[in-house]
Amino acid sequence: MQQLFEQQGNDTIQGAASFVNNHTIKVNDKLITSDHFVIATGLKPRSLDVPGNEYLLTSNDVFNMEELPESVAIIGGGYIAMEIASLLSVAGAHVTILLRSDRALRAFDKHHVDMVMDEMKDSLGVEFQYQTEVQAIHHEDAQFQVTTKDGRLLKFDKVINASGRVPNIDTLHLENTDVKVDKKGIVVNEHLQTAAANIYAMGDVIKKEVPGLTSTAQFEGEYLSRYLRGHQSDGIHYPVIGTVAFTFPQIAEAGVNMDQAREDPDLTVKDLEIAQGDYFYTGTADDKAHLSLAYDQQNKIVGASEVSQTAVDDINALIPVIALDVDPAVWQEKMILIFPSLAYKLRSLV
How far apart are CA 152 and CA 140, in angstroms? Predict the structure, then answer.
C-alpha cells in the first residue's frame, strides 16, 4: 500500500502522529501543518482490566504463535472471537469460548446464531461457557488458570482476549483539538467532519450506526476523497451493506436485521431450509443451511440472513435485489443467473 501511495505521487511518513492543535501534528519530532487532516486510525483490542491481563493474547498474537496449543480459551463472542475459534478448532485445538451472556454475534439473527453455535459444538467440538465473567488470570505449571466471577477455576494452554475493540486514539492527543469523542468513537457529522472544522475522520475509529467493516471504511474514504476535492457536496449516504462472520458454517446478512424484522408488523419473514428441496445448495444435505428473507408490504425483499457453507455468496447475490428495488417481473425478464445455484432460484423468491 505504501508503494502504491508513492507511485501516485503522495508522500508517506512512518511514525506516531499526535495533534499539537487543530492545524498541526507532530510526527517523529517534526511539526506538520495542513489545511485538512483525516483520522483513520481504526480500533485496537480492548484491554481486559483484571489481574493477570498481561498473560492474555490478542487476535494479532494468534497469528504469531509458533505452535498450536492443545487447549485455548477465547474471551468474547463477537466476530473475532468466533472466527478465531473456528480457525483454531479446525486446526486441531480444543477451544472454549467464555461468554458474559447467553449468546454470541449479537449483530446477527439470533435464530441463525444459535445454528452456528450448535454446529461449532457438534462438528468442531467448540465448548461454550455461558454467563462467564473472567475475574483473574494466573500462570501456573505452564498453563494459564482463569478464575471466573462465580468462583470456577479453568485451565488452558493459551487465553485470548477477544472481548471487543475500542477506538485507537490514545496517542493522538485529541485534547489539543476541538475534536469530540465518546465511548463509541470520534463524533462526526454527515460529511465525516469532526467538531474541528478542518479535521475529518473515517473508518472504525468513528461513531456510526452501520457495521464497522473494511468495506464501509473504504466507502467512507471514497466519499471523503470526492468531498474534499469539491466533487460532492451532499452528506454520506450508506448503501445496503453485506456483513459476514467467517465461522463454520458462515453467517451473513444484509438489509433489515432479521431479529427486528420478526418484531415488525409491517414485515413478513420467510424461513427456508436451503439444504433441502430444489434450492441448489452446493453443500451437503446434512449441513445446517438456512435462509431467512424479510418482505415489506409490497412483497419486496428488504432483508436477508443466511447460515450455511455458502452464505457469503448467497447474500452477495441478494444485495442487488434489496438495494436496487427491481420490480420482480423485470428481474425475471432481464436476467437468468447461473444454474444450478441459489442465485438462480431468486427468480421465484423475488
Answer: 16
CA distance 87 to 79: 12
- SS3 state of residue 137: strand
Burial of residue 166, with CB atoms counted within 10 A of its CB: 0-12 exposed, 13-18 middle, 19 or more buried? middle
User: Which amino acid is present at 169?
Assistant: I
Q: Which residues pair with 250 in a beta bridge?
A: 308
Say if CB 188 and CB 200 are below 8 A apart. yes
Nearest to 253 by CA among 300, 297, 299, 291: 291
Check whether the bond before 69 is cis (ω within 30° of 0).
no
Q: Identify which of 164, 213, 168, 210 has the alpha carbon closest to the alpha carbon of residue 186.
A: 168
Whole-model pTM: value is: 0.89
All cell numbers assigned to 324: 436496487
Q: For the purposes of burial, counting CB atoms within 10 Å of the CB of 202, is it exposed (0-12), middle (13-18) or buried (19 or more)? A: buried
What digits encode the pLDDT tens for the residues 281-329? 777 767 789 999 999 999 899 999 999 999 999 999 899 989 987 777 8
Quick one: cell of 243? Answer: 456483513
Burial 103-127 (b: 16+ CB within 10 A, else e): ebbeebbebbbebbbebbeebbebb
Crossing angle (nearest 10°) for helices 311-324 and 342-349: 40
Check residue 304 and report its DSSP letter.
Answer: E
Q: How far apart are CA 173 and CA 193, in angstroms?
A: 18
Under a CB-based contact definition with an 8 Å cutoff, are residues 298 and 102 in contact? no
| DSSP H helical ranges for the chain | 2-7, 59-62, 79-91, 110-119, 214-228, 258-263, 311-324, 328-334, 342-349
Q: Which three cell numbers stand for residue 306?
A: 443466511
Task: Compute the distance between CA of residue 31 and CA of residue 288 in angstroms, rounded to an integer.
Answer: 57
